Amino acid sequence: MGSSKPKSRLEQQIDENLRKVYQQDAEPEMPDRFMKLLEQLKEQDTPDGR
Amino acid sequence: MVGDRNPNGEKPPADPRDEIVEHLGSLRAFAVSLTRNGSAADDLVQETIVKAWKNFDKFKEGTNLRAWLFTIQRNTFYSQRRKAKREVADSDGEMAAQLSVKPHHDGRLAMNDFRTAFAQLPVEQREALVLVGAEGMTYEEAAETCEVAVGTIKSRVNRGRKRLAELMQLRDDESLELTDQATVAVVQIGNQPRKFAV
After folding, report:
1. CATH number belonging to domain B15-89
2. Per-domain residue ranges for chain B?
3. Assigned CATH for B91-192
4. Global pTM exceeds 0.90
5. What is the pLDDT of residues A4-41, one digit of tens each?
6. Chain B contact for A40, CB < 8 A?
7. What crossing angle do the helices spanning A31-45 and B38-54 adopt, rounded to 10°?
8. Is B73 near chain A, with CB under 8 Å?
């Protein structure tokens, strides 16, 4: 099942737009926030840290 | 999808949790599609990271990390949403009813118009479309991520696409890159414009 049915032109275009929007949103201008968070979590976990 | 490692690579990552970082972009994009709001999305990603970190022992190594993270994220989102609903009565349906549709002539379909149309879809359709259409998951993977049957995902994707086409007044023989004689449905949220991450 699944991909056996060829996508219509409309579907392709919708998916194309979905991907564009998605890629825009995936560009995090603030990766710092998440990187810091990961670092903090890591520090909390490091056994020799305490 | 990202994350292919050298098949013969001998050194395993020091900490498998380090791989979470590779999925931050996707997590954020998925969060935006769920919340329709950039700062809410960031908060959701943050909570997802913390939960994933603390529950990492439940992740089965060798399985799809991104799908696992997405599952955590959507569960977090839905449980917040249930909580919020008790406080503010605002379902997707009610919100959609407030939307005014303002068709106008435009040379090209702006990405924001697509976003606005997308934001009107029910959340179940948004996530199904994003997972399958943008993230490139198979129906099976998306079904697993959303913890529903494969048929359910398929019908959500189909309904979502159909609704998008309607909202944008597209037929199968028309292009999304509209010519100026075509009318684009530009929908705006009445007096309280929602902010999308631009």
Report:
1. 1.10.1740.10
2. 15-89, 91-192
3. 1.10.10.10
4. no
5. 456 778 888 888 899 998 988 887 666 688 989 999 99
6. no
7. 20
8. no
